[in-house]
Amino acid sequence: AIATLGVGYSEEQARLISKYPIRYICFDSEAQAQQRARKLCNELSTYPGKTINLVLESGKDPNEASKQEIKELRRMLV
Description:
The chain is mostly helical. It contains 3 helices and 2 strands.
């Protein structure tokens, strides 16, 4: 896992993320954060592998998401 610590990210962080064959991006569900998530996904799409933007349906961020949603995501991703 690589944390960007917010919706901003550096070229170095993007480079590190690009090394994983399957990449999941999970930013806050707010419009601005999702815009940045899509931008990062687009940048990562030029690298081999697959990049998936996870958009939470409950809560603004993973900390506020419902336990059920987090449980379903974990089951889906493992």
